[in-house]
Structure formats: C-alpha cells, structure tokens
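ok trying again, last paste got cut off:
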Amino acid sequence: MRASEWFESQGLTEEAIDHAIAAGGFEHAAALLQSIAARLLKRRELTTLCRWLQQLTGDIAHKPELTIIQVWTEMLMEHFNQIPALLERCPEYPVNI
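nice, full thing came through this time. structure:
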C-alpha cells in the first residue's frame, strides 16, 4: 500500500490504483477509481476501467457507485447484454429497463 499512497501523493492516481489492487487495498482502489471515473469515461479509457472493476472483489465490487460506473463502461463498450445482471446487484435502487 505504501507504493499506492506514494503515487497518489504525486498526483498519479492511475498508478496508485494499480498498486492498491496489487497490494489487496481494494477499498482504497475503489475510492481512487471513483475519483477519476468520470474523466476516464470522457476519455473513453474503457478497457482500463473494465480491468480495474473486474479486479475488485467481494462487497466492494457490488457497491452501487461502482456498479453505475461499470454499467456506463459496458454501455460505452456496447456490451449491452452485461447490463441487466449488473443492475441486479443493487436491488434497493429500482431501475426500469
């Protein structure tokens, strides 16, 4: 986690995410990912977002905020068949498709 924190302190968030995931710091990685997700979506860095989201584990991967990021990523990648299953992760947030 020290490498992740160092990269973050240097403003290198993407590198910090990679190191947080490698160290098992999934909560920290998720928070960092959320902080730059909109920018990455705008730049269409979808493969990177998809890779990070797939590396998150357990309850962290099912956070509503991360699920919405993953839904946007899948939509922009035209993986429409993935979306209903993702939305089912958040039953407390009713969504009509």
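cool. The chain has a mean pLDDT of 90. Residues 26-42 form the longest helix (17 residues).
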